Structure formats: structure tokens, C-alpha cells
# Entry
Amino acid sequence: MIRLDKFVCDATGCSRSQAKRLIKSGCVTVNQTPVFTPDSKIKEGEDAVAADGRTLNLTGKVYYLLHKPAGVVSASRDAISETVLDLLKGAPGRDLFPVGRLDKDTEGLLLLTNDGALAHRLLAPGRHVEKTYLVRTDRPITQEMLDRLAQGVDIGDETPTRPAKAAFLPDEPNGLYLTLTEGRYHQVKRMLHAVGAEVTYLKRLSMGPLTLGDTLPKGSWRNLTEQEKRDLGVS
# Structure
């Protein structure tokens, strides 16, 4: 269920106050019946909403969580490789883009949206949004390695990496969980290289309040839940 004024606002791109005025003027119908109350509730995907006789659809701001597989490029278009937007063909919404990027050989959670303000909040360096990765390496991980990663390491940039959270991967000596609060180029791979290991597999499990979970197959996507959108401050 969604408020009628919010639906009209999201579907047309108008402000909430403009949507309310439109509804109160009698120009908005639900299932061909004029509705004058902005806070009336409608069922998305079931109720037919129109304004001035034009059918409205929620093609305003959209938010999708994708389980990116390896081999797909985190870009809007690419002349050679399949892109993450190719996986979202048929999804409602215009001007979609990935929030940040995952390397071509990296799997896991990727947010796609057309909400530039949200993307800025999640990617701004000063926000320090946490991102957690499952990492497998070419050699066993030691406590010394975890301690160094947790403190921050020199990866050849002007400053060392920010302190990270690092923990052993249960029952897998050649692996760890790594949580970062920044997004430098190839950062996970460079951090592991700095402590003497090479990454053989990389998967992002979470970004801010969003978690990939175990039910979304590789290459599949879903809409964010209303709770996830509230957690992101967009609902």
C-alpha cells in the first residue's frame, strides 16, 4: 500500500504539494473514479491511477538490488562485455546506473538506481559507508595479517587505508571477511597483496544497511523492500 499523493509524486516527478493540489482538484482517478483525498491508500500494481486521463506508472525513482555474477561489467554500457544494466532489461525506470562498481571478476551485492542524491550519500568519502566482502586467497590467513588489515595498510597511495574490520572465514583457512569504509581502486586486492596474499575470489555481501542474503541467485535482481528504502532514507 502507498499513499496516493506519494504515488503521483513518484510517477510524475512533481513535488508532494503539487501532487496534493492535483488530487484535490479532482484530476486524479483510481480505477476510473475521482479521488480527492491525498492520503488515500492504493495498491501498487493493482489499482489503476490516472491524472488528466493519462495512466500513471511508478517510473520515477527506482531502487534495485542485483546479485552481480563474475564476468559482468559494472557500467551502463560496454562495447565488448555484458553490463549490469543488461541484466536489468525490462526493469521499470529510466536512467539507471550502478552505485559504485565491482570489478569484472567480483561477485555480489550491487545497488542500481536513478537516484543521484542517494548515490552521492553512499559513495561520498566522508560518509564512511561500510562494505563487507567475503575474500578467498591463495594462502592461509594468519592473525598477523588480520591485525595489519585492521590497523590500515600501505597500498601505494598517499595515505594508508583506513582501519578495517577483518575476521577469519569459518572452516576456510584461505579466507576472511573484510569490512571497509572507503572505496579505493582495487582496494581489497591491494590490501591483501600488502599483507602477502593474493585474492582468488571476491564477493560483496553488504553495503550500508543492504545485505545480499542467500536467496537471490547470481544474475538476478529484486526491488528494495520498503524497510530497506527507509533504512537508506529514501522512503
About this structure: The chain has three domains: 2-55, 63-124+213-232, 130-207.
